[in-house]
């Protein structure tokens, strides 16, 4: 009975999480009046919706922009957070706990609250309508998250490793790169992937700091497909674009699923 209930619970959770993506695929294969029909699978799948995604606008360029922005954001976030987490977790100094709470507090601000100030900063730096503007702005919500997670993980690393490396004359940078980084692989993959997904799906900053189609990322490009009222929008093409940009994220999660599980459970058992 317990196994049956557990299986039913897993099936319900799987259905709840997978059904939206399945329905997006079904909707992406419809057009015209077929969009208002409720079918498990379209009677006449409109496969042409997928080529139309790339024909109406430079959507492939938007995908490359998203890859570039998300990758640079994750790289900078991990580089800064690894060094910051080492200081917050292994170095004793006054105000360490308060500083860590500041990192957590920054992530609680809604994007709209910092949008005007960030816009002035981007314009002052001369980065408006350039992809570095999104990388700089995305660090606001990716960096606090990565610092917090990696600090928690680094606290669980044995202090004997650091003491042995110090006795051998290793500098703090050597300890980070030669001792801790090889042990932090699962946590780096987990935090990096979650930060990548957040940067990939970000919309408000990308809409505000870009102007031309050559600099837009995929969320903004999808929002600009079609025009007019909600009944006039080409929902089949919009959902096809959504499926196209979701598949790479699913592939990344499946490729690194073992490291993700290891990273999520790291530090759960001590000793």
The number of distinct β-strands equals 0
As residue ranges, the low-confidence spans are: 267-271
- Given helix and strand content, the structural type is mainly alpha
Radius of gyration: 23 Å
Individual helix count: 13
Helix content: over 70%
Identify the CATH class of one domain. Answer: Mainly Alpha
- Largest β sheet strand count, sense and barrel closure: none
Strand content: under 5%
Find the CATH topology of one domain.
Answer: MetI-like fold
Q: What is the quaternary state of this protein?
A: single chain
Q: For the residues shown, what is the average pLDDT?
A: 85
How many angstroms does the end-to-end distance come to? 36 Å
Q: Please state the second-level CATH architecture of one domain.
A: Orthogonal Bundle
Let me know the CATH homologous superfamily of one domain: MetI-like
Structure write-up:
By secondary structure, this protein is mainly alpha-helical. The chain has a domain at 58-224 and 245-265: MetI-like (MetI-like fold, Orthogonal Bundle). Helix content is 72%, strand content 0%. It has 13 helices and no strands. The protein has helices at 2-28, 49-56, 59-90, 96-106, 111-125, 131-155, 159-167, 172-180, 185-201, 204-209, 218-223, 235-255, 257-265. α3 (59-90) crosses α9 (185-201), α4 (96-106) packs across α6 and α9 (185-201) packs across α13. The longest helix is centred in the N-terminal third of the chain and has 32 residues, at 59-90. The protein starts with a helix and ends in a 6-residue tail after the last helix. The model is unreliable at 267-271 (pLDDT under 50).
């Amino acid at each position: 009975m317990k196994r049956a209930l557990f299986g039913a619970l897993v099936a319900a959770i799987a259905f709840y999480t997978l059904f939206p993506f399945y329905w997006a695929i079904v909707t992406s294969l419809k057009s015209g009046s077929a969009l208002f029909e409720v079918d498990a699978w379209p009677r006449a799948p409109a496969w042409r919706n997928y080529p139309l995604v790339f024909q109406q606008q430079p959507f492939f360029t938007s995908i490359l922009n998203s890859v570039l922005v998300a990758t640079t954001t994750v790289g900078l976030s991990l580089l800064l957070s690894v060094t910051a987490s080492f200081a917050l977790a292994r170095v004793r100094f006054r105000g360490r706990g308060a500083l860590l709470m500041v990192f957590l507090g920054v992530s609680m601000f809604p994007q709209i609250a910092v949008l005007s100030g960030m816009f002035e900063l981007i314009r002052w730096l001369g980065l408006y309508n350039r992809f570095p503007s999104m990388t700089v702005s995305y660090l606001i919500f990716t960096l606090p998250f990565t610092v917090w997670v990696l600090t928690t993980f680094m606290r669980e690393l044995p202090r004997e490793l650091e003491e042995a490396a110090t006795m051998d004359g290793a500098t703090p940078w050597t300890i980070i790169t030669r001792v801790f980084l090889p042990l932090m692989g699962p946590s780096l993959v987990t935090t990096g992937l979650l930060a990548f997904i957040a940067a990939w799906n970000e919309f408000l900053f990308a809409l505000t700091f870009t102007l031309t189609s050559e600099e837009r990322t995929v969320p903004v490009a999808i929002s600009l497909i079609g025009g007019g009222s909600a009944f006039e929008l080409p929902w089949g093409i919009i959902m096809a674009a959504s499926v196209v940009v979701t598949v790479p994220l699913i592939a990344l999660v499946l490729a690194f699923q073992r490291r993700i599980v290891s990273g999520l459970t790291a530090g759960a058992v001590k000793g």
